[in-house]
Design a protein that fits this description.
single chain, mainly alpha, 2 helices
Length: 41
């Protein structure tokens, strides 16, 4: 069973990745979306 510090590290890293993805989505949405991106989705 992993130690408490290992579990905390996983939570912090996972939260940081989630925040980074969210920031990227917000940054992309604020820009004007290219047409090829609209066609893909």
């Amino acid at each position: 069973m992993p130690s408490v510090s290992t579990q905390v590290t996983y939570i912090v890293v996972g939260y940081a990745v989630l925040v980074a993805i969210l920031a990227l989505v917000v940054a992309v949405r604020r820009r004007e979306r290219p047409r090829w991106l609209d066609q893909m989705v």
